[in-house]
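Minutes, project check-in

Agenda point 3 was the complex the collaborators sent over. CS summarized: two entities, 474 residues total, and the question is how they sit relative to each other. Sequences were read into the notes so everyone works from the same version.
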Amino acid sequence: MSEALADDMLVCRCEEVTVGDIKKAIRDGARDVVGVKRRTRAGMGLCQGRTCEKLVQQIISKELGVPASETGTSSVRPPVRPVTFGELAKGDVEDD
Amino acid sequence: MIHKDVLVIGAGPSGLSAAIEAGKAGADTLLVDLNLKAGGQLFKQIHKFFGSSAHHSGTRGYEIGSLLLKQARDAGVEIWLQSTVIGIFPGGKVGIERGLDNGEKDLVTLKAKTIIIATGASENAIRFKGWTTPGVMGAGAAQTMVNVNHVRPGENIVMIGSGNVGLIVSYQLMQAGCNVVALLEAAPKVGGYSVHAAKIRRAGVPIYTSRTIIEALAGEDGSVCGCVTAAVDDHFQPVPGTEETLKCDVITLATGMKPTMDLVKLAGCALKFHGPLGGYVPIHDERLETSVKGVFVAGDSTGVEEANTALDEGKIAGISAAEELGYISHEDADAMRSEIWSRLDSLRLGPFGERRMKEKKAMMEEYSETVKVPAAFQ
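CS then shared the predicted structure for the full assembly.
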């Protein structure tokens, strides 16, 4: 993969976050995937980072000179797949 | 709320074989999958599988899928298709968007005594100029189009990556009538089996090693009309002056996969980074149990491998879940598992398999050092 990446190249297509946005987030103090996500919304769109997480890890790894194993992984919250409010509202809510 | 002994999430090879083992042992087992059909990626595999008879060698992938589905039904497994697990909640409650026969969806909550997460893997993207141009897609997506939906993704294909996925999907695209313009591999040699590479070479498809894509070109309609490739040096960096342009309308990426992790994260399973297994993975012990008691993993969701290793891991997870609930004695479960483990060890031979076997063993050591005993659901 080319290291000479243009800053305007998209990384998170759902939230339209570019290489430049992510580099700036790292300059601003982001040290892992969650830090980048909070500053840029990369990984907060429809696919929830399924496409871009590895790309974000690679950029952090290169910018900070750390192995990918130290770049972290995104946090997750339900629903993990899109679901309509209608379905949520009529869903069964009984306890145990 | 619905109660089950065993909930298996994902009906690919590992989930199906897990459900079969749990069902056969007598556990009340539910298998949930978001697709229209059970079988996961098996239903896209029109080629014959390698390996031993225990792994259905010589049988085409989709036939293995049908066979497993029948075995699951015979084992009394309840199967919900077009049903999506949307979350695992405190205490191990599971939210499922259940697909109904009339096409409607219903949201149900369920509590299972044990959960087997077999959610597979998703394709890696790689970055190059124009990688978001329409016409750039995963090789798996192209395979779904031709083998499941019977639609050609385009006419002229450039395949990136020469692992088995890149090689096999190239051939299947040709069988569907596409022209595979070239296959590019950044490494100095072909990644997949030479028997697959020979097949597409014989058909006249050039395989360029030490060369990669640096740009997708868009035509007037905004979609792919070609790509620029370049030779790469020992550090995989493009060498200036070696650029070449290829005409194509589709660029398929066969550049590896990563485990699908959302549900293991929600369940609170401990994760570790293992590059050769695809990145972060939930760590497990010899019983395929995660750091959370009663939560098991199997198949690509705990390390990207092959369909046959997924089948065996699924079996182990299904046996362990049934053992956990007392449907199989510890002695019997140990004996069944050790037979499968020795088979798995022999499957994990060869340059790729051995690397993964080493990672898996390291992972299980980490488990015994850091997790020791799985903790109850938070």
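Noted in discussion: Chain B touches chain A at residues 1, 34, 84-89, 95, 97, 105-109, 111, 122, 124-129, 131-132, 186, 212, 214, 236-238, 258, 260-263, 265-266, 271, 273, 275, 279-280 (CB under 8 Å).
Follow-up: revisit at the next meeting once the mutant set is ready.
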